[in-house]
Specification:
Layout (H helix, E strand, L loop, with lengths): L17 E3 L18 E7 L7 E3 L6 E4 L10 E5 L5 E7 L14 E2 L1 E2 L7 E2 L1 E7 L12 E2 L4 E4 L1
Antiparallel strand pairs: 1-3, 2-10, 4-7, 4-12, 5-6, 5-11, 6-10, 8-9
Pfam families: SCPU (PF05229)
InterPro entries: Spore_coat_component (IPR053167), Spore_coat_U/FanG (IPR007893)
Organism: Acinetobacter larvae
Length: 151
């Protein structure tokens, strides 16, 4: 019985880039009375159970947030579901509300120490329900903000 043998190569090329595990997230301020004067905070962080934005090693990564659908005069705004009523809000990089997410401005991201490919960032939001000359119309207010990842 005769035999012969040949070899073949097996290869794969991993492209540098990023992935988003889940694109639908919600930043919810909660429920408040129409006459509320509260300063309300909310937070959303990139984690394995939220966006799960991960990138290959050693590439500089930036994110930017747009102004949202209903921005006006430099303010992001949530719009009432049926009425022409708005509530302004702001988005920040830090819990002290010192570093704003300026619309369409690139922010350089760092990698998480626990998972080297997971990008570390949070979005802190604040709405001042007292910052109005009249009470808010009861109902649901919403906005959509796009997040862009660039590398």
């Amino acid at each position: 019985m005769a035999e012969t043998q040949a070899n073949f190569k097996v290869s794969a090329k991993i492209a540098r880039g990023c992935s988003i595990g889940s694109t639908s997230q919600q930043l919810n301020f909660g429920r408040y009375a129409a006459l509320s004067n509260d300063l309300v905070d909310a937070q959303l962080s990139n984690a394995l159970d939220t966006w799960n934005i991960q990138c290959t090693e050693k590439i500089p990564v930036k994110i930017s947030l747009d102004a949202g659908e209903y921005a006006s005069a430099g303010w992001r705004r949530m719009k009432h579901s049926v009425a022409q009523a708005y509530i302004p809000y702001a988005l920040y990089q830090d819990s002290a509300h010192q570093q704003a997410y300026v619309a369409n401005q690139n922010i350089r991201l760092e990698r998480s120490s626990s998972n080297g490919n997971l990008l570390q960032f949070s979005i802190f939001a604040v709405v001042d329900l007292a910052n109005s000359t009249r009470s808010n119309i009861a109902g649901l207010y919403q906005d959509n903000v796009a997040i862009t990842i660039a590398w």
